[in-house]
Amino acid sequence: WTADAMHNASTNIASEYELGSNGTRRANAVLLMLARNSELNDAITSVKELEQRFNRRFNYPWVFLNEVPFTDEFKESMSSIVSGPVSFGLIPPDNWYQPDWIDEEKAADSRAQMVAENVVYGGSVSYRNMCRFNSGFFYRHPLVQRYKWYWRVEPNVHFHCDTDYDPFLFMEENDKLYGFTITLYEWPKTVATLWDAVKEFIDANPQYLPANNSMKYLSNDGGASYNMCHFWSNFEIASMDLWRGEAYSKFFEHLESKGGFYYERWGDAPVHSIGAGLFARKDQIHFFDDIGYQHDPFQHCPRNAEVRRARNCTCNPFSSFDYWPSSCLSKWEQVLRS
Ligand code: GDP
Ligand code: MN
């Protein structure tokens, strides 16, 4: 396989991220979207909104990834609406498809069982491929490798407020590693043995956990069990150094060895959240309260009326997920303060 196409107006990417069009310093960051060709219209919606609300002032590069080549229509449409450089990459097959060592009979039984129990995406192999790729491979893709920071964007999401500052520089200057907007509970049936694997790993490798980690956000009983809280990973502004570091790399290898991405339906959201929650300090995780964000069926709207006015937000704070019973935000904030 090779990187599919480089629709890049510039020949000097290295200098691209040092100065924005407004001449200010910028971060080594990328706007990243995994998408299918069939999602073109929804992808356009997301890209146009993020350009309008943020990137037209910053011109960060976009990278689109897919396990099959993007169509010319996809590439041409995207190239015409982005304000920065854009490239389109093909995912190496080994990073996407179910590995040969997975016992397909066992995996198929589990899928059938989840379908019978009405688990969302319970019968889908491609969804599992996507979750495993997002958990352990996207940050190693050749088109992504050169960047440190990423903002994950999905097709058909909405940005309800202006982001008039650079969130990547904010993260860098404040020693943050992981940023989120929505936190909620995972479906227990998708991660039945995930926490067993986590405990095995941290018992064997306690040196990877900083003292002020976020274990209390993930577990209500001192680490004995997982409470299902996770950051919703369809929105992430984060450092890939977190994923590329020794702790998370070994952690991912350990999870991979269990086969749970296929024998269960481990999501990249709980996997990232547990990784960030255990291997970063809690003060390195940032709640982007000021970014209005919607991925159906949930949305987050800034809590502060001043912020909503200053950023021209179009969302309704009463629709915000933050204080729904199924949100983990109050738990997160309680842990952060403790
Ligand atoms: P949900 O948000 O959990 O309902 O899952 P989505 O269907 O939105 O998928 C999450 C992300 O992975 C989105 O960016 C999708 O475009 C992408 N995605 C999901 N399945 C596939 C797939 O089979 N191929 C590709 N290329 N992208 C996929
Ligand atoms: Mn989605």
Word description of this protein:
With 338 residues, the chain is of the alpha/beta class. It folds into two domains: 1-92 and 143-173, Spore Coat Polysaccharide Biosynthesis Protein SpsA, Chain A; 95-136 and 179-338, Spore Coat Polysaccharide Biosynthesis Protein SpsA, Chain A (Alpha-Beta Complex), CATH 3.90.550. The protein has helices at 13-16, 40-53, 72-79, 93-96, 104-116, 125-136, 167-173, 194-204, 215-218, 240-244, 246-258, 260-263, 268-279, 305-310, 329-337, and strands spanning 29-34, 62-66, 86-90, 149-152, 158-159, 178-180, 183-185, 229-231, 236-239, 285-287, 293-295, 298-300. It has a seven-stranded mixed beta sheet with strand order 3-2-1-4-9-6-10. A three-stranded antiparallel beta sheet has the order 5-11-12. A two-stranded antiparallel sheet has the order 7-8. A hairpin with a 2-residue loop joins strand 11 and strand 12 (298-300). Helix 6 packs parallel to helix 13, helix 8 packs across helix 11 and helix 11 runs antiparallel to helix 13. The chain is globular, with a radius of gyration of 19 Å. It binds guanosine-5'-diphosphate and manganese (II) ion (MN).
How would you spell out the order of helices and strands? HEHEHEHHHEEHEEHHEEHHHHEEEHH
CATH topology of the largest domain: Spore Coat Polysaccharide Biosynthesis Protein SpsA, Chain A
Q: Bound compounds, please?
A: guanosine-5'-diphosphate, manganese (II) ion
Shape: globular
Q: Just give the CATH class of the largest domain.
A: Alpha Beta
Distance between the termini: 49 Å
Most strands sheet: 7 strands, mixed
Average of the residue pLDDT scores: 94
Q: Spans with pLDDT under 50 lasting ≥5 residues?
A: 1-18
Structural class from helices and strands? alpha/beta
Rg of Cα set: 19 Å
Q: Percentage of helical residues? A: 25-40%
Q: How many β-strand runs? A: 12
Determine the number of helices (DSSP H or I, runs of at least 4 residues). 15
Tell me what the CATH architecture of the largest domain is.
Answer: Alpha-Beta Complex
Total individual domains: 2
Spatial order of the strands in the main sheet? Answer: 3-2-1-4-9-6-10
> CATH superfamily of the largest domain, called what?
Spore Coat Polysaccharide Biosynthesis Protein SpsA, Chain A
Protein name: Glycosyltransferase family 15 protein
Organism: Trametes coccinea (strain BRFM310)
Keywords: Membrane, Transferase, Transmembrane, Transmembrane helix
Family: Belongs to the glycosyltransferase 15 family.
